[in-house]
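Methods — Computational structure assignment.
A single polypeptide chain was analysed. Its primary sequence is given first, followed by the predicted tertiary structure written as structure tokens.
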Amino acid sequence: MSPFILSQLLVLVTIVLECVAMQLKRPNRLLLLLSISCLFNGFHFYLLEQPTAAYIFWFSSLRFLICARWKYSWLAYVSIAISSAICMATFIGVLSLIGLLGTVLMTLGSFHKDDQTMRLLMTSGSFIWLVHNVMLGTPLGMVLELIFVVSGVIGWYRLHYKPFVH
């Protein structure tokens, strides 16, 4: 099996985990599933020879576990600093910077105490990763982020939007 095909199979697992995660009411359960999904997504990028994305996702797996337990804002900034260091150490071009931007938004969201703001920041970060995956040309990576964005919007709407009823 080629590395590309294997990478796409890993994204299939990630898709299932992230779709379920974004529909969970409890933020800590959402973050736990996202932690697991990041491991698979990291290997997906590793197989596509994208070291910045791979290492950022592996670190993000740890970050999601940390922020499920502690919501200290200083931890978000430490995480952003570590992700920035990963980007500098593995820099391969504009894709590294785009991935870092998406990660910064998702990091700020994952450490946010307000569930609504968390979901909106993480969905925005996922949109940036969608741009990354389009530029990289990973078909199921594109599907993953598109589903995450749509699922995030649906989850936000279902859990937080209160329509005005006449």
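Note: The radius of gyration is 15 Å.
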